[in-house]
Specification:
Pfam family, one: TPMT
Bound molecules: S-adenosylmethionine
Mean pLDDT: 85
Oligomer: single chain
InterPro entries: TPMT (IPR008854)
GO molecular function: S-adenosylmethionine-dependent methyltransferase activity
Strand content: 15-25%
Strand order of the largest sheet: 1-2-8-9-7-6-3-4-5
Keywords: Methyltransferase, Phosphoprotein, S-adenosyl-L-methionine, Transferase
Radius of gyration: 18 Å
Protein name: Thiol methyltransferase 2
Low-confidence stretches: 1-46
Number of helices: 9
Helix content: 25-40%
Shape: globular
Number of strands: 9
Order of helices and strands: EEHHHHHEHEHEEHEHEE
Distance between the termini: 29 Å
């Protein structure tokens, strides 16, 4: 059962929860950086539209996806119809990096888009793979990022998350607006892929954009329960759920950071 800790973090598994930061993530940044993060929260071109369906660019995206299910994402990137794109690192990703609570090792960002979060997480301790189905997104990300000082600590791969076969598994998968972008009929397959791609002790972090009143997508309706419904059957439990206090303006109050781990199966032999 979920319970609320004094830090505002919902803890599920006592043992795992102990390894999480004692303070809410938002307090881990120095005051000046918290302010900068808040100011940066206005990013993205649909900040005036809290309801995605009222944003003309989301309507345009949905039209593109309906007209070309196979290549729709690539078309949206080619035509610059990317209303989700913040044009900067997601503030809470910076916070996770700076708080020291992000696992080290091999990191996967499925549906990485422009790649800002990929670059922000990449360091000598973390090799980050940004995965994208859209060739034009990959091209843009590579053009923007390939000469950055940490360029040998990340890579962009053009492939379909549902069929891609990497040589090595990952210590962390970070999902932000990928789960809500894919058709809900693919959610069980998404969870199965998370299980296949993560090392047994790896962690899944979902930055969950909660939406509930959309008649269509993307983005499709999603709740924390929707993640649990598909992750629990493949062996994952939620170890912490925290409000994202520095979500971008239009998503404020609508985002949660979920941390998930595989259940430990005890052998009685
Ligand atoms: C809503 S966008 C989110 C992008 C990024 N995570 C962000 O927050 O800015 C979803 C992204 O997933 C990509 N995508 C959709 N289906 C995919 C698939 N099957 N495999 C890999 N990427 C996919 C799209 O091209 C798109 O860039």
């Amino acid at each position: 059962m979920l319970r609320l800790s004094r830090t505002g973090v919902y803890l599920r598994a006592q043992g795992l929860a102990r390894s999480l930061p004692e303070k809410p993530l938002s307090t881990l940044l120095p005051a000046t950086e918290r302010l900068t993060a808040r100011m940066a929260c206005g990013g993205g071109d649909e900040q005036r539209f809290r309801d995605p369906a009222s944003n003309p660019r989301v309507v345009q995206l949905r039209e593109i996806m309906k007209s070309d299910a196979k290549d729709g994402w690539n078309k949206s990137w080619e035509e610059g119809v990317t209303p989700w794109d913040l044009g900067q690192t997601t503030p809470v990703v910076l916070q996770l990096v700076q708080s020291g609570s992000l696992p080290k090792g091999r990191i996967l960002v499925p549906g990485c888009g422009s790649g800002y979060d990929v670059v922000a997480m990449a360091s000598a301790e973390r090799f980050v793979v940004g995965l994208e189905i859209a060739s034009s997104a990959i091209k843009k990300a590579k053009e923007r990022c390939s000469s950055l000082p940490n360029a040998n600590q990340f890579t962009f791969v053009e492939a379909d998350f549902f069929t891609w076969q990497p040589k090595e598994k990952f210590d962390l998968i970070f999902d932000y607006t990928f789960f809500c972008a894919i058709d809900p009929s693919l959610r069980s397959a998404w969870a199965e892929r998370i299980r296949e791609l993560l090392k047994p002790d790896g962690e899944l972090i979902t930055l969950i954009y909660l939406i509930s009143d959309q008649k269509e997508g993307p983005p499709y309706n999603n709740t924390v329960d929707d993640y649990e419904k598909v992750l629990n059957p493949v062996g994952f439990s939620c170890v912490a759920i925290e409000d994202n206090e520095i979500a971008v303006e239009r998503r404020k109050g609508s985002e949660k950071i979920g941390r998930w781990k595989q259940h430990v199966t005890k052998s009685f032999l």
